[in-house]
Amino acid sequence: MSTPVTSPADPAAAIKPSPRMLLPLLPYLLRYKERIAGAVLAVTIASGATLAVPLAIRRMIDFGFSADSAGLINSYFFALVGVAAVLALASGARYYFTTTLGERFVADLRSAVFKHLCGLDAAFYDSAQTGELLSRLTADTTQMKSTLSATSALALRNFFLFVGAMALMVYTSPKLSAIVLIVIPVMVLPLFASGRAVRKRSRSAQDALARASAYAGENLGAIRVMQAYGAEPATSQRFSAAVEGAYEAARNAAAARAGLSTVAIFLVFTSVVGVLWMGAHDVLADRMTGGLLSQFVLYALLGATSLGELSQVWGEISSAAGAAGRIGDLLRVRPAIVAPVPAARLPSPARGDIKFEGVTFAYPTRPDGVALRDLSFKIAAGETVAIVGPSGAGKTTLFQLLSRFYDPTSGAIYLDGVDIKTVDPAALRKEIKSVPQDPVIFGASIADNIRYGKPDASDEEVRHAARRAAADDFISALPEGYATLAGERGVTLSGGQRQRIAIARAILEEAPVLLLDEATSALDSENEVLVQTALEKVMSERTTLVIAHRLATVLNADRILVLENGHLVEEGAHSTLVAQDGLYARLAKLQFETVAPAS
């Protein structure tokens, strides 16, 4: 099974959010060093232009308001226009670099997260909620983009302004600056202390939204069941309660950030007013000029404003840390089903010999319920073997293990004499194709659904596979033929049509092993005969394992394996098993004995 560091289905178990959670995502950002350098350069130039303004204003106040130097006013104002032009160009460049960097980062991150999700094994999805995973893939990555695009630019700008303003304040008046520098730690420490509460509440808000999204996705995916049972009011009410919970969590996070900003801004500007009061007394005592005080005050305001903005940026970073933690939780999940190094190779072409040797298995989510117990059998290449038994006997589990969606708890499974645990799962699955009892049809065209596992298949190959699955007639009769959209989950198709498309999809790849799990269960009698006839030729060309509750569909199998409670209890042809008068005979008697029709 997968080995998550924290289960995405259990938000309470998640690691406490911290800005350090952003660090694992830095490699996605550092791929674009040129854009980062451009953004930093643009921010540096914009900050330098902003910091030049108080210098010009000081000189204008001290030297520009006298009759002897009236011409200097024009020069200073023209200089300010030049500074404004540089500031505008640098700000535009900063916006471009940071915005495109954020979009590029989130696109790469989403691709990486989705690729990671595609590689996780079945055990992970036994407990994960698709809606919550989608929330991480969309909402959380969007939060990261917002932080990187807007917040990072503000953070850089305000950091440079704060550092520059502090340095120029010291240059302008060391005495007044000393007072400001003493006050700053008193202001900053509460901001960092309250940042933990902001991060915690932001993470709670994101988790609540993810749970609401998961609930909505699950129920919208079963809209017909919901409406058939009249569950719309109860479902809507429950979703509203989930959304309300997400709102409450978001409101708490907003309240924490609002309090953080309020305290920061009050402390910052109160200190500026106090310094201005002291500076006014120095001007009255001729210890500094009015221009110098104006310069100092402007730098103090720039520094105070930058520090206030940085406190809000810290709140944004805290929210992003929650999102990064959730994404990090997901990326730390490691699948148990991986390609070994080095991986063994199957014979080419594969023959289709199958061997189960002492296989025992219990699902990770049901450790007390053993699905298969010490199961051993052999199937020769080209043989058709039926798997029968009561519900819960382990029939579908056998298919899951053969496709290596799970590994046995003990024992081994061999394909053409090679232990499948030593083979790359992707290479193994190329040789095994299955048709499940409830086939998955995607919201694409009929043709694309058939060529799903072989996207480069030609139109003629697709039609040939459809003909062999007795699907060509009904597909050709559709308004747009093979280009007809199937709708989400094949909602526009009947159960029998979906089943035949799934059979065509499995046939298309010509794999040497075919697994049919109640493949004709959704067909009416007429279509069942058509598909069964089509499948007979397909099955004769490869190793085929068939699960069927309707025993009439497996009478012609070469052998029948009878499972009960995970054990292989009987094995043989239909006539042999009936003669043994065991479990199979009882199942056959229940199905084949019919009451004579009344005359």
From TrEMBL:
Molecular function GO labels: ABC-type oligopeptide transporter activity; ATP binding; ATP hydrolysis activity
Principal location class: membrane
Membrane-protein topology: Multi-pass membrane protein
A Pfam match: ABC_tran
InterPro entries: AAA+_ATPase (IPR003593), ABC1_TM_dom (IPR011527), ABC1_TM_sf (IPR036640), ABC_MsbA_ATP-bd (IPR011918), ABC_transporter-like_ATP-bd (IPR003439), ABC_transporter-like_CS (IPR017871), P-loop_NTPase (IPR027417), Type_1_exporter (IPR039421)
GO BP: any one term: oligopeptide export from mitochondrion
Localization terms from the record: Cell membrane
The ABC transporter domain, residue ranges: 354-590
Location of the ABC transmembrane type-1 domain: 37-319
Keywords annotated in UniProt: ATP-binding, Membrane, Nucleotide-binding, Transmembrane, Transmembrane helix
CDD domains (alphabetical): ABC_6TM_bac_exporter_ABCB8_10_like
Transmembrane spans: 36-57, 77-97, 154-172, 178-198, 258-280
GO cellular component: plasma membrane
Family assignment from sequence similarity: Belongs to the ABC transporter superfamily.
Xref: PANTHER family: ATP-BINDING CASSETTE SUB-FAMILY B MEMBER 10, MITOCHONDRIAL, ATP-DEPENDENT PERMEASE MDL1, MITOCHONDRIAL
Protein purpose: Part of an ABC transporter complex. Transmembrane domains (TMD) form a pore in the inner membrane and the ATP-binding domain (NBD) is responsible for energy generation.
Protein name according to UniProt: ATP-binding cassette, subfamily B
